[in-house]
C-alpha cells in the first residue's frame, strides 16, 4: 500500500496506516478520508526559499512537470533548485530523475512549498550518483499546517561517489521525508543529516535506510529535533550491512528536545549487521533543556526566553554547520532562527 497507489485509484483504503510497521507513527489512512481531485499545472514564478542562490530552477507544480525531463549534472560545480509546489487542494504523484555523472558535482536545493490548505503532495526521486560523482542535497520542507506531503528518494551510488544530505523541516499536518540509499561500499561515502523544528500540531517523519552492499564504505548520520506544543516528531533510521560488506564504517545519532508536556518524539534507530569486520554504532537521546544551563544564563542577565532560544539554537546548529555550501548553510541558519523565534516559550 502506498500514497501513489491510493491517488491513482482514488481509494483511501490503499493508504499506509498504523498497521504497517514502517508507517505506524505516520498514519495516513486514519487521516485522509477522501483523495482530493487532480489539479492542473500552475505558474508559480521563480524563487522559493533558496532564491538568493543562483541556480537553474526546476519546478513540480501540483504534481506536473513541464519543459524538462531530468536534473543532470554537467560540470564540477553545478547548482539546481528543485521546487515542489502545491497551489491547490489537489493530488498528483510525480517522479523526478536526478543524475550526477561520473566526476561531476551537483548541489541540489530541494524545497516543498504547500501554498494551499489540504494539498496532498507525493513525489518520488530516482537519484543516481555515478562513479566519482558528488551530490549534496539540501531539503527544506516549508509546508502549510494543513498539507500532507510524502517524498521518497531512492539513491544509487557508484564507486567512490559522495552523497551528502541535510533535511530541514517545520512539519505539516502529516509529512514523511524518506531516503533510501543503495551503498556499494567501494570507498563511497554518505553523510545523511536532518533537523525537525516543530510547533503547534505539526508532524514530521524523517525515515532513512542505507544498505551497504560491498566492502570499504562509510556512512555518517546526525539528526536532531525540537518539538513544542502538541507537535510530533518521528525518526526512523536503518543501516543495513550485507553479507560480505566488510570494513564498513557506519555511525548514526538521533537527539531530540521536547519543550512541552504534550509534544511527542518517536525514534527507532536500527543497525542490521550481517558482516563481521565492521565498525558500526548508533545513539539516541530524547530529553529537555538543561535547567542548570538556563539558570546559569539568567544569573548573567539573560532573560529566560532568550536563554532557552540560545540553547535550543545551539543544539540544532550542529546539524546546520555540516552543510557544505556557504550560501545554503546561511539560509538554513536563518530558517532555524525564524522557526525557533516563532515558537511560544522559546
TrEMBL record:
Domain SUF system FeS cluster assembly SufBD core: 90-315
Record-linked InterPro entries: Fe-S_cluster_assembly_SufBD, SUF_FeS_clus_asmbl_SufBD_core, SUF_FeS_clus_asmbl_SufBD_sf, SUF_FeS_clus_asmbl_SufD
One Pfam match: SUFBD_core
Listed name of the protein: Fe-S cluster assembly protein SufD
Natural source organism: Caulobacter ginsengisoli
